[in-house]
Design brief:
The chain is of the alpha/beta class. Helices cover about 40% and strands about 20% of the residues. Strand 6 (about 110-115), helix 2 (about 125-135) and strand 7 form a beta-alpha-beta unit. The longest helix is centred in the C-terminal third of the chain and has 24 residues, at about 370-390. The chain starts with about 25 loop residues before the first helix and ends with a helix. The structure holds zinc ion.
């Protein structure tokens, strides 16, 4: 069995200690503790500790409680907020740099929990340019869900973490795991338990942040074996799921999340068992039932009380779901929508634009009745989001942007995803949480990321308008703070200009 061999071991470049797999929270708690001790010591001795940046007159968007905290002061050094106070006390805070945020709304940086860097070695520079595009849209962290340029992604992960490269923090799965002859280049093929062991060894060797499973060729048995072995190693696991497997089974084994809504939707069918049996029976025949082939039967047997029970179960399992509503909408609309004048194409390298053709050609072949069904199916899926959220499932915002995913532009696509999550019935605060606090929850890093409080991460977006009143305010970015570095509006424009082609 051919294994994908990664070109080099980047372990020494990893921005987080090796123990991140085992004790992610612990590392952050220790860091926060040390920070607090240093802060209190420094401040009480001098009385005028000098901060790197003090922001005054800020209206903090409290996404936890859905309210605005007015006239706040934030004192920041490095990537940590060392104090949050009333602006009236500003004279007590000395800083190298001050920012008056009067009339502005400050919220945590955005996390896009499903992106891809891929397209082969000839697209490395084109993918690297996307880091700036993310930042210009306030995306300060991405979860990269598998591709074929892993050594480069590992280098960018190190460089952005050290502030040597403009771009979001990167969490990456490295290569996806799949069956033999997988659809996506770079995937590691697994069949036997020994293959799974070797694959997970290789991911740990490069310090992958989580395991991403894809379902183009993987068997149900190999899939479940990945979850079992990954859990023994305390690695986070998310991904697609073969339709021969039931979601409850995967979640029961400790799977941490599910990408897209197909697998959740399948589990909401009153006939899930018999449909799954039929899929298994025909798996190795000349007439297998693919994912899309099964959707009409699943749609007509959708059972809302089963859905409610499932969501409760997933919440108990601390399960995360990435609905990716925007890419579904975009791809299903490709046939009728003309994207040739999209202004954002100016920031997408022609090499990446060239990868868009595959989906466009595929969409052209789709019948009108299939398009109509997809729209109905998507509306039903979107209606499940607020129910899952209310049940306590960890909903995370992810765009699925990257090469091959046509017209889903890095940065702006996560804004569109947040707006669609709000349109599905989430409150603005809930929709913002999916893109700020819930991503860190997936990684067990909520102690450091996800809200603007003392001791927490200073990655933030400064908006011109209040996103709790109108969610589309997330498009009106005035400044971004990433890795302790402040990017003004003109800095962000300059980033964009630098990748314009
Ligand atoms: Zn994806």
């Amino acid at each position: 069995m051919d294994k994908i061999q990664l070109k080099k071991d980047n372990s020494r470049f990893h921005p987080y200690p090796k123990t991140q797999y085992l004790f992610p929270q612990m590392k952050r708690i220790v860091a926060i503790g040390l920070t607090m001790i240093l802060f209190h010591t420094g401040f009480s001795q001098s009385g005028h500790k000098k901060f790197a940046l003090v922001i005054t007159n800020a209206s903090i968007v409290d996404i936890t409680n859905g309210k605005i905290l007015s006239n706040r002061l934030l004192a920041i050094s490095g990537d940590t907020i060392l104090a949050v106070d009333d602006t009236k006390k500003a004279t007590a805070y000395k800083a190298e740099k001050y920012l008056d945020a009067k009339g502005k709304y400050v919220m945590p940086g955005l996390w896009d929990m499903h992106v891809h860097f891929r397209g082969g070695d000839s697209t490395i520079a084109a993918n690297k340019a996307l880091l700036r595009l993310f930042l210009a849209y306030g995306v300060t962290t991405v979860r990269e869900c598998g591709g074929d340029i892993t050594p480069s992604v590992m280098t960018w992960r190190k460089q952005t973490a050290r502030g040597q490269l403009d771009g979001p923090r990167i969490f990456t799965s490295g290569p996806k795991l799949d069956g033999p002859n997988a659809v996506w280049a770079g995937s590691i093929p697994v069949v036997t338990p020994a293959d799974v062991t070797a694959a997970l060894d290789s991911l740990q060797k490069i310090h992958a942040d989580f395991v991403k499973i894809y379902d183009s060729r993987i068997s149900g048995d190999a899939y479940l074996e990945i979850i079992r072995q990954a859990k023994r190693r305390h690695m986070k696991v998310t991904g697609h799921m073969p339709f021969t497997v039931e979601l409850k089974e995967a979640a029961g084994l400790g799977m941490d999340g599910s990408e897209h809504l197909y697998y959740v939707f399948k589990a909401c069918s009153s006939k899930e068992d018999s449909i799954t049996d039929e899929i298994r029976r025909r798996e190795h025949t000349d007439h297998p039932i693919g994912l899309f082939g099964a959707l009409p039967a699943l749609f007509s047997t959708f059972d809302s009380s089963k859905a409610d029970r499932l969501f409760k179960y997933l919440a108990e399992k601390h399960f995360s779901i990435t609905p990716t509503l925007f890419i579904s909408k975009t791809l299903s609309g490709i046939k009728g929508d003309d994207h040739s004048n999209d202004s954002l194409l100016a920031y997408i390298d022609p090499k990446i634009q060239a990868t868009y053709r595959g989906r466009v050609n595929g969409a052209r072949r789709q019948s009108d009745s299939a398009t109509r069904f997809t729209k109905k199916y998507q509306a039903l899926c979107a209606s499940l989001v607020p129910k899952m959220y209310a049940a306590g499932v960890n909903i995370v915002a992810g765009s699925d942007c990257g090469a091959f995913n046509s017209y889903v532009y890095p940065g702006s696509s996560i804004h569109e995803e947040i707006k669609l999550l709000a349109a599905s019935g989430l409150t603005p605060a809930q929709a913002l949480r999916t893109a700020t606090a819930n991503g860190p929850k997936f990684f067990g890093l909520a102690g450091f990321f996800g809200s603007l409080q003392q001791g927490k991460c200073s990655d933030m977006v400064i908006l011109e308008r209040n996103p709790l009143e109108d969610i589309s305010a997330i498009d009106r970015i005035d400044a971004v703070l990433s890795h302790g570095r402040l990017y003004s509006k003109s800095d962000l424009d300059a980033l964009l200009a630098s990748i314009r082609h």
